[in-house]
Structures are given as C-alpha cells and as structure tokens.
Predict the 3D structure of the following.
Amino acid sequence: MSIIEKLKKWYRGVYVPPDMSISSFAYIGHYEKPLLAKLISPFVDFWLKHWQVLFPTILAAAVALFIHFDSRTDTSGKPQEKENHQITGTNHAQTPSQGAHFN
C-alpha cells in the first residue's frame, strides 16, 4: 500500500456499521474521521475548490520572497552594493573658456 493510499484511508476514517437495533429503511453505515482530519477538512475542501487561483498566487509569492531576500545579501551575509545603471546626461555644450565662439 503506497503512502498516498494510506493517507486517503486515514483521511476517510473508520467505517462505522449501521445500528441494527433501530428499525430504518436504509441500513447504511458511515465513516468516522479522526479528529485531525476533521480539523483540516475545511482547508482541504477550500483547496480542492479554489486550487486554480491559490496555486499560482502562492507560487508567485514564494518567488517574490525568494528574489527579495536572496538579492539583498551575498554569500558572506554582507549587504551588496547595488550597481547604478541609470543613464546620466552629458553636457556637450562648450563654455567660452573651452573655446566656444558666440557671435
């Protein structure tokens, strides 16, 4: 039995047969979940219902946190100096002391 099958069996719980002392038309038993399975059941149900939105959101948040915290320090733990890649303007106008002739 694989781990996934064991987890499914545990999550489903123990089968409780019907009470035969009560006269009823439907003799159907039920599964009694363990306490931990009862507690996590709403979260599992929510995940199964909304996983299409939750999965990419959690993945994007994890990547963003990784990029944020990984780029702040190098392997020695010291803060890195950020390189400045801004284009600075250059003034090519000549002043009169540089030999510019203004008429």
In short: The mean pLDDT is 80. Residues 90 and 98 are 16 Å apart (CA to CA). The chain has two helices and two strands. The first helix runs from residue 3 to 12.
